[in-house]
């Protein structure tokens, strides 16, 4: 008996070692490797097939076209561009315009979204109702329609060029956009900028210290006053000490349009407005859910400790709510970035419009251009995700 | 927008997955029973759907002529509206058999996209339309003006060329993907100028709320030979497409009309006899019946009739024949002989 048992155990052990087929680790590895190979193989096959088919159709392929001059104009560009600029420059103009919309949009949508989300939980019925109505309307109408609506509304609501609205501060608004006076600095401004960077770093470090101190000692003191003091005083001083000259270029009516200053075309304004209003509605719901996920006992406990309303929100509720808010917030940021491609529908020259639209059509390099464009959105999304994951790890509850 | 991206994605996907190049399109078309024809989203006189979604226009009649030649039935056509931007991908990927859509014949398009132009259905050039109240009388006064343009067109390129060549400032061109938005943005005052092919301007202007408040500037800044396009590589289909166009021209030149074509079957003019298939067989080499051209004229008419029906002086567009007249009438429309 003993013998057999011994043998049985033994053989089982031996089997466990030799038959790697049953080893879960090996299996996991095997399946993953097989999947990767299959996917890569599929793409390789697609790629080669596409190359053969395109060649059979007599279509030129490859990336050499990127160096050729594009032959068209782009109305809104953050870098110099004209008809002699290359397709590669078209790509960059598109990327920069997309980044501009995404960055401004994300910042504004965050502020608006948090405000509306908190308003949604307000004790004031009117505020609460307004927030709810806003969220429901905006979330339930397709974004493309909203963009077209804002765009044509802004065209029709604003006056024609000759009857432009003159706003305070030399700002001019009409159907062609909103033009701002643009400051033009001389060379000495570089020093002011340097001082500003140093001052900002120092101010941030100081702010952190003060916050730590408040946390450890409970001794409340102003955080923002010294922050702005450290930031502003040296910059203003540097400005006057270096004697930097500032000139303003004012928008002026010359011929058809206002020239001079900096003009935000209505396509840009409508696109940012539409994206911000839309995304903020979703962010508001995320914020509301986050706040409500914090046990009401926390609010009561904070009240029992004698914390005032704003402290209860800022020190107790929001930090805990952030854990719930950040992951879905990330996907809203990604959505906003990708949705900016709808700008093509209202004539804003973001990446899809100038590159997938005009450049693809003029050059005929469909696969190359779509590939390059997807690469940009993929990269932007990954970078945003990485940043938000890092931030999430920071705000996550530290388990003790 | 979404639709356009989808078209492009599908087109790219098809390029990547389909395995054999389009072997013989005529067989496919006959098996299918109709011609799939790419048209505009709606330009009056050229291709425009009525309230019953029946398409008509000069370019639509070309597709009807193709169907008549193949099926003896001008209605054996289905239409695919395309944006300026997506049209070449739609054709290249095989979703349509022929693109008959205000498309300018350029060297890049003819040699670099795997496509071949059939001929010039309409000789055109790029023009400008402005609001009368702006008091502009020449394109040379347009420096700094805002231009509304459709994306993916020769229009974009010509405007850049013309403004650069004349030292005008073109920092204000707004590019839209669909025709509706270009026109709406111009009408809403986003732009001072709407620019595209002169014929299309004449056509669009008929649709403006107050056509009289808009003036067309005298300058024509480019050559825009508009014609049908097919994929390269299928010689027979190309020949059918090209000789359909030539048949329309030859019929006009020989005085054969929709009304008199049956009478003309009895003509003893050898040229007419060859065209109508009474003498010789010119259909067989292109895979069609002997009376292929007779069918075209019977169902659609000759080039002059098609022109007058859709864009000529008695239509709202009222475009004079001009260089689109036959060579025998001082124009440049000219077809090689059937023999
Ligand atoms: N002929 C030029 C321009 C063609 C073009 O797209 N024209 C516009 C002018 S209205 C048009 O037909 N639009 C109608 C549409 O997009 O459906 C080209 O081939 O690039």
TrEMBL record, chain A:
Annotated InterPro entries: AA_ABC_transptr_permease_3TM, ArtM/GltK/GlnP/TcyL/YhdX-like, MetI-like, MetI-like_sf
Topology versus the membrane: Multi-pass membrane protein
Localization annotation: Cell inner membrane; Cell membrane
GO cellular component assignments: ATP-binding cassette (ABC) transporter complex
Residue stretches spanning the membrane: 29-48, 60-79, 91-119, 131-153, 189-206, 227-248, 268-287, 369-391
Family stated for the protein in its record: Belongs to the binding-protein-dependent transport system permease family. HisMQ subfamily.
Name recorded for this polypeptide: Amino acid ABC transporter permease
Lineage of source species: Bacteria, Pseudomonadati, Pseudomonadota, Alphaproteobacteria, Hyphomicrobiales
Automatic annotation (TrEMBL), chain B:
Signal peptide: 1-23
A Pfam family assignment: SBP_bac_3
UniProt KW Signal keyword: yes
InterPro entries membership: Bact_solute-bind_prot3, Solute-binding_3/MltF_N
Domain of life: Bacteria
Gene Ontology biological-process annotations: amino acid transport
Record's keyword terms, sorted: Signal, Transport
Cross-referenced SMART domains: PBPb
Domain Solute-binding protein family 3/N-terminal: 34-264
Database matches in SUPFAM superfamilies: Periplasmic binding protein-like II
Annotated family: Belongs to the bacterial solute-binding protein 3 family.
Protein name: Amino acid ABC transporter substrate-binding protein
Protein's organism: Pelagibacterium lentulum
């Amino acid at each position: 008996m003993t013998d057999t048992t011994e043998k049985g155990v033994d053989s089982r052990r031996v089997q466990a070692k030799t038959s790697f087929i049953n080893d879960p680790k090996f299996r996991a590895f095997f399946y993953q490797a097989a999947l990767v190979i299959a996917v890569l193989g599929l793409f390789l096959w697609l790629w080669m097939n596409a190359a053969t088919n395109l060649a059979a159709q007599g279509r030129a392929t490859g990336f050499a076209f990127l160096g050729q001059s594009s032959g068209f104009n782009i109305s809104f560009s953050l870098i110099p561009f004209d008809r002699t600029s290359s397709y590669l420059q078209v790509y960059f103009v598109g990327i920069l315009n997309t980044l501009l919309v995404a960055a401004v949009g994300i910042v504004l949508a965050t502020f608006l979204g948090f405000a509306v989300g908190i308003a949604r939980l307000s004790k004031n019925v009117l505020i609460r109702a307004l927030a709810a109505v806003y969220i429901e309307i905006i979330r339930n109408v397709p974004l493309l329609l909203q963009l077209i609506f804002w765009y044509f509304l802004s065209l029709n609501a604003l006056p024609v060029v000759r009857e432009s609205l003159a706003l305070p501060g030399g700002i001019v608004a009409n159907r062609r956009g909103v033009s701002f006076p643009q400051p033009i600095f001389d060379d000495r401004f570089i020093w002011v900028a340097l001082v500003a960077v140093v001052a900002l770093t120092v101010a941030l470090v100081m702010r952190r210290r003060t916050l730590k101190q408040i946390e450890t000692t409970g001794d409340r003191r102003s955080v923002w006053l010294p922050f702005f003091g450290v930031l502003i005083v040296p910059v203003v001083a540097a400005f006057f000490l270096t004697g930097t000259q500032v000139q303003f270029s004012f928008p002026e009516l010359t011929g058809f349009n206002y020239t001079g200053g900096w003009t935000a075309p209505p396509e840009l304004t409508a696109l940012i407005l539409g994206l911000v209003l839309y995304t903020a509605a979703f962010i508001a719901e995320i914020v509301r859910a986050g706040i409500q996920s914090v046990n009401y006992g926390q609010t009561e406990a904070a009240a029992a400790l004698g914390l005032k309303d704003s402290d209860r929100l800022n020190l107790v509720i929001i930090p805990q709510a952030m854990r719930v808010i950040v992951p879905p917030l990330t996907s809203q940021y990604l959505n906003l970035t990708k949705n900016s491609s709808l700008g093509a529908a209202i004539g804003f020259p973001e990446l899809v419009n100038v590159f997938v639209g005009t450049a693809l059509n003029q050059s005929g390099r469909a696969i190359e251009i779509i590939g390059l464009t997807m690469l940009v959105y993929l990269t932007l999304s990954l970078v945003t995700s990485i940043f938000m994951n890092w931030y999430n790890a920071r705000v996550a509850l530290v388990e003790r | 927008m979404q639709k356009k991206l989808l078209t492009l994605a599908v087109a790219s996907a098809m390029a990547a997955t389909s395995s054999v190049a389009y072997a013989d399109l005529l067989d496919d078309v006959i098996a299918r029973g109709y011609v799939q024809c790419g048209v505009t989203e709606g330009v009056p006189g050229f291709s425009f759907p009525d309230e019953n979604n029946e398409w008509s226009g000069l370019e639509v009649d070309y597709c009807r002529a193709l169907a008549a030649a193949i099926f003896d039935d001008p209605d054996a056509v289905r239409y695919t509206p395309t944006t300026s931007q997506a049209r070449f991908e739609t054709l290249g990927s095989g979703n349509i058999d022929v693109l008959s859509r205000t498309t300018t014949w350029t060297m890049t398009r003819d040699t670099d996209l795997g496509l071949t132009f059939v001929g010039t259905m309409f000789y055109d050039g790029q023009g400008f339309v402005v609001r009368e109240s702006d008091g502009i009388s020449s394109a040379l006064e347009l420096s700094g003006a805002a231009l509304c343009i459709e994306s993916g067109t020769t229009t974009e390129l010509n405007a850049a060329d013309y403004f650069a060549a004349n030292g005008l400032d073109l920092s204000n061109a707004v590019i839209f993907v669909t025709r509706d938005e270009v026109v709406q943005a111009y009408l809403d005052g986003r732009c001072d100028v709407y620019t595209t092919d002169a014929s299309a301007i004449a056509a669009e202007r008929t649709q403006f709320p107050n056509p009289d408040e808009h003036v067309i500037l005298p300058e024509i800044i480019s050559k825009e030979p508009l014609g049908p396009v097919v994929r390269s590589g299928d010689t027979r289909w190309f020949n059918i497409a090209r000789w359909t166009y030539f048949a329309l021209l030859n019929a006009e030149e020989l005085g054969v009309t929709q009304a008199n074509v049956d009478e003309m079957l009895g003509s003893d003019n050898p040229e007419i006899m060859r065209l109508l298939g009474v003498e010789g067989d010119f259909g067989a080499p292109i895979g069609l019946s002997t009376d292929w051209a007779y069918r075209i004229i019977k169902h659609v008419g000759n080039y002059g009739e098609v022109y007058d029906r859709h864009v000529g002086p008695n239509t709202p567009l009222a475009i004079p024949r001009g260089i689109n007249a036959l060579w025998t009438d001082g124009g440049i429309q000219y077809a090689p002989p059937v023999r």
